[in-house]
Design brief:
The structure holds two protein chains of two kinds.
Chain A (H helix, E strand, L loop, with lengths): L11 E2 L5 E2 L2 E12 L2 E12 L3 E5 L6 H8 L7 E6 L2 E2 L5 H6 L2 E3 L12 H7 L9 H6 L3 H19 L15 H14 L4 E5 L7 H18 L2 E5 L3 H7 L2 E6 L2 E6 L1 H5 L2 H8 L5
Helix pairs in contact in A: 3-6, 5-6
Chain B lengths: L12 H4 L6 H21 L2 H27 L7 H18 L5 H20 L7 H21 L12 E2 L4 E2 L2 E2 L7 H24 L1 H11 L1 H7 L3 H28 L1 E2 L1 H4 L2 H14 L4 H25 L4 H22 L3 H15 L5
Antiparallel strand pairs in B: 1-4, 2-3
The chains are: A alpha/beta, B mainly alpha.
């Protein structure tokens, strides 16, 4: 394979040496309506293998709806979702998860009654195959599987530096750590596409730095493709390879951070425009 | 002072995820098993087995079952009595239809039949949640008891409308019918309890349990990370009903010997078992046992104190018993809403630090 830095090529190498591959997720002309409200209007964009793709836009632009369409929670009225070169038929969210998608939520959606370790282990559920009877007997397949998957979870725990709270019930943790545990749960699934819905919302500068580091490391070390929604422009511009900008359900910009930063529509959407 | 993990190093994930991570707990468990299997059977008499051990062990199975459904999977059910009736009548029909087959198989099959019925009545849980589901399961309770009273086939057209457990034996020892010896009654219940508690523990600590708890804590998130809500809820209903069905079968064959659906498996039974898991602790295996023990032993204890100790007339004592048990339930729930299991957990946490709590 020839290496090129041409962003339009089938695969290219970024300035910091990561390889961006072909398109994994292709959204084609997505339109999503809630009754008379059009949340997403005819939006197309793609996510390429190994890249960090940001979706930004003012409040109510339809970013989270877009993420919900990708994760199968909302069914768009029009348009097609193509995943790994195949058109995705209508699916339940758990079926989408089995295809290798994992996500985190804007307002943390952890299982409060379970320990951190159990929460992260739930991320492995698509990789564990023991049936009810085998689990009831435990000895044998269920136990082997449990231990093998525990090892993977422990790697994630090490990576995200949450060893000390392994056995703590999630309900007792502070906000920042919960965000990190949620990321761990998504990462434990070893997803081919990871969706992060405002991973840095409500964090202080230090926590944001930590989280940015984790996102970059995840992408760099495991090659995880990441699509994220974020409001902190500094973070978005520093982290992402390409950015989609949405406003009022429409796509108003798409490209590298530099292109987006200089896009007149984007500037208008964020700063407002004089009406005369 | 010796109750702690220090010095008890875990070197594998298997060690780390065992049921009793602390050595003293493990020893306590082995001693309990030793006493239960090798000491109690030699000293037990009819009074102890009928007043204390048989109801405690059987209710513990039912409480385990309901705890899996309500405590772990978060689906409230008021149909426990009805499902126990299914277990009882299934075992009765199996015992009378196939007398040559072992009763152990009949009891397990009765559990299986109850599981199927439980899944059928659990289907509404896909659409409705919380209190509304409780009302839907209440319908199961009334419908099932009604069916067992109205359809004579279920009680083999007997004139009284009652079902009577015929005499059956396991390995030559009579376990049902009026000639059963105390220790045999006790042992058959104990074996079922130990095996089922082990199964419940295995299911709840593994991926099945995590799926159930995921559905309980946040069903939408669980679905998005890959839990199939249909399978998770139906498996919870199936496993729970299996446990409850076995409890019902044992309750009828071993403990009561004769039963009538409305009387033995009425709505009060559903509430009794729900109280057990609430007082014992939702989502805890230990809590199921603690709650069953509390609800079975408290009345017996009070009766002994009031009638035997203070010499009160029996009817007065019986009424006071209701009031005291009711009052204690309220007190317990105010002091520790998460039940006896949580009290036990807190005690253990304190013990681990004692005598240097800082």
């Amino acid at each position: 394979m020839t290496t090129t830095t041409d962003i339009n090529a089938d695969s290219y190498v970024t300035a910091d040496g990561r390889t961006i591959g072909p398109v994994v997720m292709d959204m084609k002309n997505i339109t999503l309506r809630f009754g008379g409200v059009v949340a997403i209007k005819d939006i197309s964009f793609d996510i390429r293998e190994g890249e960090i793709r940001a979706i930004i836009g003012p409040n109510g632009a339809g970013k989270s709806s877009m993420l919900n369409v990708i994760s199968g929670f909302y069914k768009p009225q029009e348009g097609e979702v193509w995943f790994r070169g195949e058109k995705r038929p209508p699916m339940k969210p758990y079926q989408v998860a089995r295809q290798g998608l994992a996500r985190t939520f804007q307002n943390i959606a952890l299982f409060d009654g379970m320990t951190v370790l159990d929460n992260i282990m739930t991320g492995r559920l698509n990789h564990m195959k023991a049936n009810l009877l085998q689990q009831a007997i435990w000895k044998g397949k269920a136990e082997r599987e449990e231990i093998a998957n525990r090892e993977i979870c422990e790697k994630v725990i090490d990576f995200l530096e949450i060893q000390h709270i392994r056995k703590t019930p999630v309900g007792r943790l502070p906000y920042g750590l919960k965000k990190r545990v949620e990321l761990a749960r998504a990462l434990a699934a070893q997803p081919s596409l990871l969706l992060l819905d405002e991973p840095m919302a409500g964090m202080n500068v230090e926590e944001k730095e930590d989280m940015s580091r984790f996102i970059l490391d995840m992408n760099d070390e495991f090659g995880t493709t990441i699509a994220l929604i974020e409001h902190d422009m500094g973070v978005v511009m520093d982290l992402s390879d390409r950015v989609v900008v949405m406003d009022y359900g429409k796509k108003i910009g798409d490209g590298t951070p530099d292109e987006v930063r200089n896009n007149q529509d984007v500037i208008d959407a964020y700063l407002g425009v004089a009406h005369d | 002072m010796f109750y702690r993990e220090a010095g008890d190093f875990k070197t594998s994930y298997r060690d780390d995820s065992q049921t009793f991570p602390i050595r003293l707990d493990r020893m306590g468990y082995y001693i309990l098993m030793f006493v239960a299997f090798l000491v109690v059977p030699f000293f037990i008499n009819d009074y102890w087995v009928n007043a204390v051990f048989a109801p405690f062990l059987i209710y513990a199975i039912a409480a385990l079952g309901l705890n899996i459904l309500t405590g772990y999977a978060g689906q409230v059910s008021l149909g426990t009595g009805g499902f126990m009736a299914v277990g009882a009548y299934a075992s009765y029909k199996l015992m009378t239809s196939f007398p040559e087959v072992s009763i152990l198989i009949h009891i397990i099959l009765a559990g299986g039949i109850t599981a199927v019925v439980g899944v059928a009545f659990g289907l509404p849980s896909l659409r409705i949640k919380g209190f509304y589901l409780a009302v839907a399961t209440l319908a199961a309770q009334f419908f099932l008891v009604w069916v067992f009273n109205k359809v004579p086939w279920f009680y083999n057209y007997s004139a009284s409308g009652q079902i009577n457990a015929p005499e059956r034996s396991v390995f030559g020892v009579i376990v049902t019918g009026p000639n059963t010896e105390a220790w045999a009654k006790y042992m058959i219940c104990l074996v079922f309890v130990v095996v089922l508690a082990w199964v419940a523990r295995n299911l709840t600590r593994g991926m099945m349990g995590r799926k159930w708890m995921g559905i309980r804590d946040m069903d939408i998130a669980a679905e998005i990370i890959g839990v199939n809500p249909l399978m998770a809820k139906m498996s919870a209903f199936a496993v729970s009903s299996f446990f409850v069905g076995i409890a019902g079968a044992l309750f009828f064959t071993v403990y009561l010997g004769a039963a009538e659906a409305g009387e033995a498996f009425g709505i009060t039974k559903s509430f009794l078992i729900l109280f057990m898991i609430i007082i014992g602790g939702l989502g805890s295996i230990f809590g199921s046992f603690a709650g069953a023990a509390f609800m079975v032993l408290m009345p017996v204890f009070l009766k002994n104190v009031l009638v035997g100790g203070l010499g009160w007339p029996t009817d007065l004592a019986a009424h006071f018993e209701f009031m005291i048990v009711g009052g204690l339930i309220v007190v317990f729930l105010i002091v520790e809403p998460h039940g006896l299991a949580q009290l036990w957990r807190l005690t253990k946490e304190k013990l681990r630090l004692w005598p240097f709590p800082h």
